[in-house]
Amino acid sequence: MKQPQAILVLPHLRIQNANAIGSPVTHGFPSITAFTGVMWALQRKLAQAGVPLQLHAVGVVCHHHQEQVTQGYVRSFNLTRNPVDKNGSTAAIVEEGRIHLQITLVLAVSEKRTLGTPAALLQSNQAQLDDWAAQAGYILAGMRVAGGSVLPSRPVPGKRVWPWIAIVPEDPVAAEKEFRQWRRQWLPGFALVGRDDLLADCLRELRATQPDATLLDAWLHAARFNYEPVVSESGNAAPEGPVKWADPRRPKGSGWVVPISVGYAALTQTHAPGTVRNARDATVPMRFVESVYALGEWISPHRLTHLIQLLWHAEADEALGLYRCRNGYQPAKEEDAVADGSPTTDTLDESDDDEAYAYT
Predict the structure, then answer these.
(1) Three-class DSSP labels, 181-224
(2) Rounded CA separation 303/331 (Å)
(3) Distances (CA, A) of 57 to 146, 158, 235
(4) Is 119 left (phi over 0), alpha (psi -120 to 50) or beta?
(5) Would you give the DSSP letter of residue 55?
(6) Own/partner long-range contacts of 120-126 (Cβ < 8 Å, ≥24 apart)
(7) How far apart are the C-alpha atoms of 307 and 301, rounded to whole Å?
(8) Tens digit of each residue's pLDDT (9 = 90 or more) over 212-255
(9) What pTM, to 2 d.p., does this model score?
(10) Is 286:279 a contact under the CB 8 Å cutoff?
């Protein structure tokens, strides 16, 4: 994905009762496809309102979350009691997962220009940019975000809580400098980025002991805690006394890696519009799909160096029947970080986070 022309930031959105079930086997945060869906729905409504903005990608920063579950070692969703049916008997309970969120959405935008009209998406046209941002925020207030309702924003000291648009400089150095200023507005918080590289590493390590392991085995292995007894430097476990257990794939400083749903894979061929009964839209082709899974990581925005690392964009391969979201995050190599003078993963601790969150 190339550098966007501008960004539309919808900061500190309060979402009530969003869908906490991201896929048939994951929960705890909406799927990234829910936010790309919000992006496309917002784009259609902006076009109806006469706002000439094209939305290309979306980044998600979570500031607060509260999943509606019971506390304890085994958790279950808090369910609502439905009214009795027409016969007076208890209605069936449909299990649903809900979560309250405070998030910031960062949208990559460009201008849809008609032939012969001058460009309006310019830094010198700040009044027009502010008006477009205000219209986007007003429209989003009446929409659903991941199935949840949008509540009015609350003032945050030192932060902008109203939507705003900023032009991305064409010069890469200037764009990186601007991004360092923008990302301070998203602290404290954590951005969801893709980590397909970790899934490939997990598969390679798993095949060292299980040659017939598949990507699904690697994903399941990386999605859970795998505790093993810690061996001594000589390679043998302690013969007596308490045994220390740890997860060899989750050492200190490895980050918060989570299983996520990133799209869909086709199960059938494409059916002509109107040929499948009870389809949501009888005017478009229909195809049965299943979820596509990958690994993601929650990372503090101050650890991102480029805007592309934050953004998710959709890709569609009709031949393969693959419809998935991709992210531009690539972890910096340790030797590059040391040469840059920036701290590596192993040297970062909680004090670094506290200092970063002090930005206003």
Answers:
(1) HHHHCCCCCEEEEECHHHHHHHHHHHHHHCCCCCHHHHHHHHCC
(2) 10
(3) 16, 27, 48
(4) beta
(5) E
(6) 120/52, 121/5, 121/6, 121/53, 121/167, 122/167, 123/167
(7) 10
(8) 888 888 888 888 888 888 776 665 655 666 778 888 777 777 77
(9) 0.82
(10) yes
